[in-house]
Amino acid sequence: MSRTYTSSAASSFGFDRSGLPVIEAVVAVARRLWPSKTAVNLSSRAGVTHRAAEFWLAQGTGMSADALAELLRSDAGREILEALMGDARPSWWPAFKADLVFADLERREADNRAAIEELRREFNSRRAR
Fold it and tell me: 64-80 pLDDT, tens per residue?
C-alpha cells in the first residue's frame, strides 16, 4: 500500500480519535455482558467471524458500520447504544431513553402476566385432582 493511500485513507471505524472511541465502548460492553466466551458471543451477534471479534477485543482493528448495526439490532443493542452515547446528551436522548425503559417494563409486565397465568393453570389443575 502506498504512503499516499495510507495517509489519505479514512480512519477505520472505531479508530477516529476525534470522536467517541467506538471499539473501546463496544469491547467494554461485550466483556461485561459475556465475561466468558466473549469473542463467540460478540461474533454471533455482529455477524462476523470469531477471529474478527478477537481482533476487536484486542483492539487491533476497527469495526465496520455493518457489524455495529448488527450489534445494535441484537439483544445487547441497548447496552451498546448507551455505551456509544457516552456523555453525549442530544435533545432527543432523554425521551428516547425513557421510551426504552417503558418498553422494557411493558415486556417484563407481559412476561409476569404470562407466568402468573401459567401458575394459575397449574394450581387449578392440581386443585381439580
Answer: 999 999 999 999 999 99
Of 86, 71, 68, 82, nearest in space to 13 by CA = 68
Q: How far, CA to CA in Å, does 32 sit from each of 73, 93, 105?
A: 18, 23, 22
What's the predicted TM-score (pTM) here?
Answer: 0.68
Asked if 81 contacts 72 with a C-beta cutoff of 8 angstroms, the reply is yes
> What cell does 1 get?
500500500
